Amino acid sequence: MEVLRVHQKQERDPTVANRFRGGVHPDDSKHTSKQAISGLQPAERLILSLSQHIGAPSRPEVSVGDRVLKYQPIASPGGFVSMALHAPTSGTVKAIEPAPHPSGRLVTAIIIEPDGLDEALDLTDKADPGLARSPENWKETIRDSGIVGMGGAAFPTHVKLSPPEDKPIDMIVANGVECEPYLTADHRLMLESPDEILGGLFLAMEIVGAKKAVVAIEANKPDAAEVMRKADLPEGVTVKVLPVMYPQGAEKQLIQALTGREVPTGGLPMDVGVVVQNVGTLAAMNQAVKEGRPMVERVMTISGPLPNGPGNYRVSIGTPLSHVVEQTGGLKGPAARLINGGPMMGQALAGLDSPVTKGTSGLLAFGPGELRTLRQRACIRCGSCISVCPASLLPHTLGSMVEFQLFDQLREFNITDCIECGSCAFVCPADRNMVQFIRQGKAELLALAGK
Ligand code: SF4
Ligand code: SF4
After folding, report:
1. Are residues 336 and 391 in the same domain?
2. Residues 318 and 441 in one domain
3. Tell me, what's the pLDDT at 7?
4. Is 381 close to ligand 1, i.e. is its CB under 6 Å away?
5. Which of 103, 135, 280, 299 would staple 150 via disulfide (CB 3.0–4.6 Å)?
6. Ligand 2 centroid to 46 CA: how many Å?
7. CATH of the domain at 438
8. Using CA positions, which residue lies closest to atom 4 of ligand 1?
9. d(Cα 191, Cα 227) in Å, to the nearest integer?
10. What pTM, to 2 d.p., does this model score?
């Protein structure tokens, strides 16, 4: 559809540097940015979902009744695009059964009852503290350590680091943009662990053979930019501060803002020579390669008006969200809205039964009337959604097509390019719930294709 791509053909205005198309300015509400990362008391039960990443479910490698040690592999990848799982502490496998999942579905999980000893596997053989091994070996370690994108997408990291030979990579982007309102976990990680992030960035550059890298940070985190700039930057690495604009942290938009390169429709960042890795993912890569530590924990933000203990916490994967809330002081009152992730792209949660997964960047809790309630009306064709769409789509048309069940035409209007950023719904004066329409449309397309 030529008409849909017209915005991409416009010449870039050379006076407006570092800009992607569209975008919005939600109030960033980053109230927890001064809260240093702290730990939590362990939970009495861990729920290790076999589907907490993009790709095939992991395959259990333990049986009910087995005793497991901290860092022990408990599930192997179910395919190339899949990942391994490891025990976050020592304990006993109590069940392998359908369990609550942030998606709202029941998904098979390995349930571990910790024994309180936190007895760990000896990682000496797995560690490469002096980086004496080869980049190929580091990539295998990253795969075996179960590392996925920690910005929320949870795409297996070793897959991103395996571009085909005909797609050379010349740049790695360390994504410290964290453009979602409320979330500050990446901000704190940059302040507290810059060397771990840069260690992972060096590994990524060596693995794909990139000579350049950029640490991308939005201008609302000047302290993080200063810390990163003063750190021991590997050769070829620069720190770039970008103007604040949502959804700048999305891969395609970030690449466009940094380089002017446009990832083609249906394409990937590697199509334009770039690999983007979240700063938390880079820190996890560094720990895996240098210390042999697999991914068994992550940093997440607790925020919103309701939590008594808003802040940034290092939490074991599999910890029930109810335990996280309880350990951080509980809620001030009944929650009307619970969100897994940020308010723009996060998932609404039905309750707190589901666990922290590798992609859990935050948990937000709002009381009645504290979030805008959409009272959807007919589209008035104002065009606001078109002007903010970073993917150059016609959101109002996509919404209407889904509403009137014209599913077979959705592909022609590039619905699969939608990154579900919510910018269109954010500006819509008719409160149209566009993201819900678009998710439904994508699901109908998959159903039509028999997948
Ligand atoms: S912003 Fe809302 S009302 Fe305006 S064109 Fe888009 S869908 Fe219609
Ligand atoms: S949710 Fe999709 S259609 Fe709406 S603005 Fe974002 S990319 Fe465009």
Report:
1. no
2. no
3. 34
4. yes
5. 280
6. 35
7. 1.10.1060
8. 382
9. 6
10. 0.93
| Amino acid letter for position 324 | V
Render pLDDT for 302-320 as a digit per residue (tens, 0 to 9). Answer: 999 999 999 999 999 999 9
Q: Is 39 exposed, middle or buried (0-12, 13-18, 19+ CB in 10 A)?
A: exposed
Residue 31 domain flag: no
Cβ 98 vs Cβ 41: under 8 Å? no
- 236 secondary structure, DSSP code: T
Of the residues 273, 291, 309, the one at which a domain ends: 291
Tokens describing residue 336: 């009307």
Query: Looking at the domain assignment, is residue 100 inside a domain?
Result: yes
CB atoms inside a 10 Å sphere around CB 118? 13
Give distance in angstroms: CA of 146 to centre of ligand 2: 30
Spatial distance between the Cα atoms of 185 and 169, rounded to a whole number of angstroms: 28
Cβ count near 196 (within 10 Å): 19
Supply the DSSP symbol for 242: E
Q: Which atom of ligand 1 is nearest to the CA of 382?
A: 4
Q: Are residues 114 and 11 in the same domain?
A: no
- Which helix (H) or strand (E) element contains residue 59? strand 59-60
Task: Tell me, yes or no, whether 94 and 228 share the same domain.
Answer: no
Question: What's the CA-to-centroid distance between 393 and ligand 1, angstroms?
Answer: 12
**384 Cβ closer than 6 Å to some ligand 1 atom:** yes
381 Cα–ligand 1 center, Å? 5
Count of domains for the chain: 3
Instruction: State whether residue 314 is helix, strand or coil.
Output: strand
Structural domain boundaries, residue 409: 1-24+376-451
Pairing of strands 362-366, 337-340: antiparallel
**CA–CA distance from 260 to each of 143, 238, 420, 421, 449 (Å)?**
31, 17, 22, 20, 34
